[in-house]
Every structure is written in C-alpha cells, then in structure tokens.
Amino acid sequence: MRKDEIFLKDILALADIKINGNNAWDIKVKNDNFYRKVLAQGSLGLGESYMDGWWECDDLDELFFKILKAELEHKIIPLKLLYMVFKSKLLNLQSKKRSSRDVGYHYNLGNILFQNMLDKHMTYSCAYWKNANTLDQAQEAKLKLICDKIYLKSGMTLLDVGCGWGSLMKYAAQNYGTKCTGITLSQDQVELGSKLCEDLPIDIQIKDYRDIKGEYDRVVSVGMIEHVGSKNYKTFFKIINNCLKDDGLFLLHTIGTLNPKTANADPWTNKYIFPGGELPTAQRIAKAAEGLFVMEDWHNFGIDYSKTTKAWFENFNRNWEKIKSENYDERFYRMWKYFLLSQSGAFRARRNHLWQIVFSKHGVQEGYTSVR
What we know:
The chain has 372 residues and is α/β, with parallel strands linked by helices.
C-alpha cells in the first residue's frame, strides 16, 4: 500500500469513512490516482476526481456530513487554498466587471436546467419546510414568510435586489397587490422572468446593485449578497439605505458562515459553481449595517437548506433526460450531483447557515413583531 493511500485512509477513518468499505457513505476508488490528486489539491482534487469517475459513493450527502462534522478539511490544506485566501484579501473579486462575468457563468447555464430542477415558482434559494411536505409548498411558504416579515401591503413598492426569475415579485404582486422592480445580472433570468411575470406590475432589469436608483417602501435581497464580497458590504448597505423610504423595511436572506476563514468559496466551488463567491459572517453583516440600520430580527433556518438541495437533486436526477438535451454531458451530471448533495451535507452538519435578517432605518415605531 502506498504512503499517500495510507495517509488518506487514516484521515478518513477519523470520520468513520472507509476506502472501499461497505457503508453507503464509504468511498469506492476506481482510479488509484485519486489519492495523489486529493492530497495535492484538497477539495478541488476531490471534486474533479469525482467528476472524472475516479471514485463513487452511494450517499454523497452523508459522506460530506461526516467529513465536515469531523472537520477533515483542516487536515489537508493545499497551496491552492492558501493562494485563494491571500488573493481575496488583496483584490476586490466582486468588482462590476467580475460580478457580471461570474453571475453569468452560473445563472446563464440555461433555463431548461433550472426549470427542471426547481419548484413551480422557479425559486433558487432555501425553502421553508416548517409546515410543508413538498418543495412547491416549502418555497411558497418561504415567499409568504418574506412578505409577512416586511409587513407588505397593497399599493407598496418593492425592490428585489438579485430577483432571479421573479418568483418573489410575482407572489407579492398577486397576493399583496404590490408594484415590483427586480434587478439581476443574468440575461437568461430577465428573458424568462419577464414572460413568467407578464400582465403584472413587475419590471425586471439587467442592473448591477451599485447602479440602483429610486425610492421604495420595501427592499429584499434573497441569495444575492453571497456574490457581493465583504469588500463591498458597506457600499451595498449604503445603497439599500439610500433607496429605502424612512419608514421602510429591508430583508436580507443569505447563506452564512461562522468562520471568516471559510467565507471564500473553496477551490472546487469557485472553479465550477460560483466563481468569486463569498459567504458573509454575522460580524461582517453587523459591521456593514452599523450606523445605517436597526437590526429588528435575525432568523436562522439553515437546516432547511439541506432538505432543499436534496429536493433539487431529486428533480435534477428525475429530469436528467430533458436537461441533457441541452448538450450537457455525464461529467456535468456528476458535477451537479456532487454540488447539490455536498451542500446538503454541509447544511446538515451546520457548517453553513441560512439567515433572514430584517432591518429598519430608524426602528419600527411600535416595535417589530417577528414572524416564523
């Protein structure tokens, strides 16, 4: 047995994971180059070797739950990861030019993919499973939760920063009688979203958040600040403050991390899924909002994201024949499976969190009553 194989087996054993074992979460190695690649490249090597079919696992969700719960990623720290952390400190990886390119990389993959993976509302963010049994129910519950948290009423104006295909705005317009404006950097989202929101008072625009103008009763940003970057948080919050009416409410919905060292996307995720992605920490959000907003409510339901990403994979897997007609190959299938199920494990291990935070500019006059 080679030294690299012995070393990796010893590390995995710390999380009750075996090479070629009988448990569903064990790793079945198909190519012995797997060991050297993982030890040299860490998470990038692990993900790429899976995409290339060098190893299999019957339960990727459980595998990553065990890896992250045991903090095995700290046992292998390749130079690639150190370089990424160093680069993020020196450069603004979410400048206007970079943001437009990076958002397009993911969200312009094709509407066929997302139409066959997401719920009927086309909502690409964590669902709310409190009283729901299906993905459709859970996503509708999340849309209602957001509208209720910001005390949305008929006749109000709503700005959705990073609106996706417009699901929240469509729900708000139909159920609360609001006039909505949404911005995104994805042309695919604008084209399909505009069709889905036809005949409703909804305007979807290609626009960077730094170019927002106007004034609104309510502002929401759902799953978008992960693309903003900590160097730009203060700018982001200042812009939201400027476009929110004095008695308005702002809801921020975001994935979060407790450790600033893990805020930047790992090398595999950065290369294949979300280039330039960065998760906010509670401290960085609070610091950016300081002097601009009163924090009225903070809600963490990150465990629901584990169930959401698993439901997305079930849809993706069931509809793969339709999806692959858009010229996606087997390597893309394995990449997407790896992404969705590894994220399910990460949220279940409570490594990642999902926060909904409600802000006011001067404090709700009679006090804010939280909604769950």
